[in-house]
What does this fold into?
Amino acid sequence: MYQRLLTWRWVLMHLLVLALFVMTFFLGHWQLTKAEAGGGPVNWSYALQWPLYGLMGAGFYLRMCRDELRRDPADDEPGTSVVLYQRPRIDTTGDPELAAYNAYLAELNAKALGQRVNGGR
It folds into this structure.
């Protein structure tokens, strides 16, 4: 189950998050020494904020790991993704002017999709 979090990408991300987490506490300590040496209220606030940034980042990262473990592995298979694009429907009933305008929009859409597929974009 935890093998998903042991791929090389996840291991690199674990190491990066750990390094950033430790760095926030070093930055908080640095700001604290600046504040104790006569710095203003900005140094005192940063001395408290840096560790909070680290804890918040760790919390978000743990949530991301939890979501990855709860995710269905079948979602990675091709063909299971949701397609959000639908072809526009042409309204041929009612107002003939509206139907002509809808047909014009559908033609423009077909041309744009054709250029995107043929143009490589």
About this structure: The mean pLDDT is 83. DSSP finds three helices and no strands in the chain. The helical segments are 8-36, 41-70, 96-119.
